[in-house]
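User: Hey, quick favor. My workstation is busy. Could you predict this chain's structure for me?
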Amino acid sequence: MNLLKISILVGHFVSLAIGDECKTVEIDKVGEAEGWIPQGVISNDFTKWVKDFHRVDMVVYNPNAERRQELVKNEKVHAGLLPKLTKALTPEEVKRLKGLVTGKHKDKGSAFCYEPHNGFLFYDKENKIVGHLEICFLCGNYESNPKNGLSEFWDLKGLEKLIRKKDVPYYETIKEWNEFFAKNMKDGK
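Assistant: No problem, here it is.
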């Protein structure tokens, strides 16, 4: 178990919540409170997450193009997807992607927002989507479907490098994303 150190004002309370566990600590010294952070779930077997995929595409989408933010819901791809920016991954890139979402990675922290713009679609031999990953680099949050089977913490720096290497848009502010979509989303595509 790792310790978390938090700087906060003396005389204040801080609650640390991890999963179903919560601990409240009163700060009685100048400087810090110690709490706990687990390592997170670690998975080393990608095939337990999604089986029998044949192809993986890297995608970009505007999460605000429709009410939902999920990249895929009820077998339907998000309306904000930009097909012209979809890039198929090579077998080497798929292997790299597997390593970035499985294995042991450090928790880099995240914010409460969630506006994913980058993702990966996993297809079977019949061209049906069997899984997907969605990533919000603005806040450091990410989701997968199926939900279970990957490591709890992903290598976001490695994912950023993979995306940049494929020459797919990656921006660090919502303003940059909005400007990009204003230029590139004509008639929804």
